[in-house]
## 1
Amino acid sequence: MRNKYFMTLVGLFAVLALCVTLGAGDATAKTIYKFGGGPAGGTFQFMAGGIATYPAVKDIKEFRVLAGASGGSVENLRKTNSGQYAMGVVYSGHVYLGRNGLMKNDTKKYEDVLGVAYFYGAPAQLVIKKGSGIKSVKDLEGKKVGVGNAGSGAFANCELFFTHMGIWDKIERNAMGYNDAAAAFGNNQLDAFWLFTAFPSGAVIMAAQQNDIDMVDLGADAEASGFFDKYPYFATLAVPAGTYKGVERDIPSFQDSALWVANSKVPADVVYTLLSKIYTPEGLAHMVNVKKTAKAMSVEDGVKGIVTPLHPGAEKFWKEKGVLK
């Protein structure tokens, strides 16, 4: 019995030793840089995977990029800062707040996360019914409002903006997903619902089919209240007229930006090489093929939404492209 137990242990150790040997062999053959994406099926994961699977990136002889699923922006911020990930997808807001020790319930400063490039924007949208009398976020006092799923980026940004506007504790908050909010809105169970996502949104399209909708000018509220001064990582934009049925004027708003970031210790030539591969007509076409959201990627908007320090490799690349002076 003891011999059998001993032989089993020997076998297990042999397997472990083989795994370690293979791992070491692979590492010496090609340095691996882990790229933190997001939950399976989410846009973050598509962006990280798109870079890792691009043939021109896979053909690089000196190193390999390995995309991995993660919990999303905050996890990527922390793991990129610690070096568990070499790179990741992180919202500009989280990079800014993390660098300055302003994350909610977390005063640590994440100073080793540096900007590389802009991926796409996630804009705020607030849907109401025509004739509701709601012209500003402040008019929501006492109203029933869908504020996004609890724990989501939409919820967090709704809380941030509504708190800034002094309205968060004066509304009847309903934490729910976009489609559920659109359905509740159509059934008169909500007076308004908030989104923080690319447009056109299927949920808003659904709401517009069932109701005469309108949208709040969030840009005016943000500008008048000093929101952009306090949170400089938000960028202005407008939901174009005609995006949704019945909304025939541009609706000013703001967005956070999903960024490509890298740990400060990642060699500059690695970041520079990756940017050189992705930011070509072929590379950008590949990214759009992976996820249409990548249409927002361009050389011209390469550093859009980045309000924190750039990685040296990125700085070199964007200066060569004339994006930085």
Note: The two ends are 74 Å apart (CA to CA).
## 2
Amino acid sequence: MDDLLAFLHVVETSSVSAAAERLKVSKSVISKRISDLEAELGVQLFHRSGHRVSPTENASAYSQRLCQIMNDLDQASELVSKDREAIAGEVKIACPMSLGRLCLAPNLIILAERYPQLTVTLLLDDRIYDHKLSEGYDITVRMGVPKSDSLVVRKLAISSRAVCCSPGYAERFGVPKTIDDLAKHSCLTYANVLPSKVWQFASTARHGKPRSISVRSRLVANSPEILCDGAIAGLGLAVLPTFVAAPALNDGRLIDAMPNAHPTSDVICAIRPPTGRLSTRSRVVIDHLVGVFHAKSDWQSGRR
């Protein structure tokens, strides 16, 4: 098991030093564990270049299967450890600001009330990151699937988006009739999507490719709520997550400027590292969030 954990951490961090730091062992121990595993399997698992390592094709496939096995082991362990009194201790969670404030925080408060011995530490952060697990967080909730194959990912929900503007903006400048018309409009763009000035729309064909278009930014921010405020003020068009825009759409401060064009949706995921058995308290948090999103089909409607 030690060899496998060393392997998974090296895949995730692309660094023997970082893996050693996480597992609190020396670099030579990690290197030996990787060498032992390569000898046992009879294949090379990493390409080595200076201080960086990258997984081979075999290693990528192997890490994905190991993560599935780790998850199965977690679920098996959970079958014999569902004692309510055992739900105690701290769970550290990182999440984007708007998603955390509007969706996660109210439901995590409910969970904390249910389990008096559980401590939830929630960091809301709109920086660009693939995950926060290297900083000691047990769970990262994020928009989009991470690139690393070594992380264990649980899908929570699909977040739809819409092109929004104020009624006043629509009256002064009209609304785009086609995606190409967006080039003529002032737009408010999200800094944490690169490139921020390119919007992507789902294809109208069943198996078609998404359509991308460059837009002219009048306001750039790393917060969807700031972009929503700018759209309400009439600064221009903004592609907004429905859970952010819903209150203003419901009360008429915003309108759906392009109801027949659909910006590509985001996947909301709960992510954890492949560090062996998932603690009961972390699993309770993830299961609670899965239940919240599945049970509340109207979670994006603005009703809390």
Note: The domain at 161-256 is CATH 3.40.190.10 (D-Maltodextrin-Binding Protein; domain 2).
## 3
Amino acid sequence: MKKTHTRHFETAPAAVSRRAAIQTGAALAAGVFAPAVVRAQQKTLVITQYGGVYETHFRKAVITPFEQMSGAKVIVKYGAPPEWLTSAIVNKDDPEIDVCILNLPTAMRAITTEDVFLDLPPERVPNALELDPLFYDLYNRKAVGFNHGPWGMGYRTDKITPPPTSWRDLWNPKYAGKVLLPDITSGGAYEMIVIAAMLNGGSESNLEPGFTALKELKPRVLRFFKNNNEPIPMLTSGEATICAWYSARIYPLKDSGVPVEFFAPKEGAAVGTLSYHVAKKSRQLDLALQFTNFSLSRKPQEDFANSMEFGPTNKFAKLTGRAAQRVPSHSSLLRIDWRVLAPQLPKMAERWQREIVS
């Protein structure tokens, strides 16, 4: 059954009587108006967004400049990626969301869902050709990556010398009882399985060495954190000294005075990527494609990446200031093939719960 939603679409204006016009004016003055009338005056585009500091930087770098350039209004829908994908599927014939911005692994479900999202070849999104292939070909050109958050390692600089350099350092016995790793609910657990597999001769299609290595590491782990707030007090106090975590979480701790450092391991840093998925039957399809193409252009990519200190997906975007020091280069990224992982995710999550954290 199709969901009922509140989005109103642009309709052609009809001739009205003088009395109706007066009534409409009175309604507008009272703050009650017909949305169709407003949309006839200004096109609107509905996108998803994550809120908080991310949205603050995104509005400044992308939404506001696009609105000024296009004359359109961008409306933000909050929530969570699985919820947005469900909405896109249920309402695929009359979408309430024009552009879904999804994370991994939700994006992998999106690109394998038939007849919901538009394919995005360069003919539709020319700036996609400026992307590192990791953020385009990964989605089989059915979506485009907007930014990436590096996921690597952090450590207490006052507790660990010499500095660690490799993912293998998590298994070093001298850090036993001081290691923090993500649980499946906090982001990074799937990547950790793949990384552990790769360190031991496995791959995305051969994860058994990863589970074996993580079971060996399990007794030395202080905590498998269930959300991204849990590591903060343990790293701050020094109870934990080494971890696998996002740069965007470690650097704020450093900036607050905690002696911690983030680094991309020599094998490569994994990435948390957000991608654009355009509704195939959007009533604002041209506008949705224009917004997507604009977001991939060099200036919004640079403005967002440098203010948020996240990685751009446009390979020509230049990082400056602290972002240039803190964001790993594309050449140092670990290129996990989520297309291979996607069918395995339910079983991976089940094995993680049963064999690693139980």
Note: The domain at 149-271+336-356 is CATH 3.40.190.10 (D-Maltodextrin-Binding Protein; domain 2).
